[in-house]
Amino acid sequence: MRKRCAIALITTVVAFSACSGSQSKTDFPIDSSEAKMPAYNPSTATSKVYGSIQFQGVPPTMSFIKPGGSRFCVQNARGITEQSVLVTKDKKLQNVIVYVRSGWQGKSYEVPSNTVVLDQQRCLYVPHVVTLGTGQKLRILNSDNTFHNVHAKTTVNKPLNFAQTEKGNENTVTFQQAEPPFLIGCDLHSWMGVWVAVFDHPFYAMSGESGNYEIKLPPGKYEIAAWHEKLGERVMNVDVGSNAQVKLDFTFSAENSGKSGS
Predict the structure, then answer these.
(1) Among the four residues 31, 47, 72, 222, which has the most C-beta atoms within 10 Å?
(2) Which domain covers residue 112, as residue numbers?
């Protein structure tokens, strides 16, 4: 059955339409324009879209992982559960990527100067979902006293697969092309995995541990999407005015996993 997206609450007068889908793989739009405007500085954005990621229904119970592969993981990963569907006490969904799917094209954007850090702690990747820009540095650490290998299962960028044999090892990598979320895993410890999404624009955010997000934008018409590794994707169209603050909430349900709707 086709589903209708949750109605977004608008605190500034805007016009929008909504549709939803739940495909787990997203084809991120890429700006192919040869003649681009001067680089846009996102710090000058005067408007924002913000909101929460609501979870509808009873959250699934996350199973305990079964650590193996090394004595360190057997001893230190006990009691850790799967990370795929994490819901806060007030029924908000964590680890959702919210991004502008269209409407950002026509400008160029500087490579973000900050380095994103991905660590391996107690035989888990921390954080569980990572977003970064094309060309932005991703620093991958091994804080575990055991052997891990870092295997990036990309489909657009060049795949990566390298060893971090002991505690304190680190590597810094970059991805030069925009790519939908892909997994970085450890072949020695099958439960380990982190989703990584690469964007060639600065208009994206994570719901993180709070289940909330915020994206600063210049005025314009945008298609905004929210992506979750298990529950698919929801999309809404919104017209953002000058100095506007638009509240846009997304709703996910376990019942909608694998289904599409509008």
Answers:
(1) 222
(2) 16-256
Q: Which amino acid is at 125?
A: Y
Closest CA to 149 of 164, 170, 139, 137: 164
Return the CATH number at 28: 2.60.40.420
Q: What is the pLDDT of residue 29?
A: 57
DSSP code of residue 261: B
- What is d(CA 205, CA 4) in angstroms, rounded to the nearest whole number? 23
Whether the CB-CB separation of 204 and 213 falls below 8 Å is answered with: no
How is residue 156 written in tokens? 């657009």
Cβ-based neighbours of 50, under 8 Å, separated by 6 or more: 212, 213, 214, 215, 245, 246, 247, 248
| Residue 47, in any domain of the structure | yes
pLDDT, tens digit, for every residue of 41-71?
A: 888 888 999 999 999 999 999 999 999 889 9
Enter the pTM of the model: 0.82
H helix runs in the chain, sequence order: 71-76
Q: Would you say residue 105 has pLDDT above 50?
A: yes
Tokens representing residue 49 in the block? 């879209």
Cβ neighbours of 91 (radius 10 Å): 15
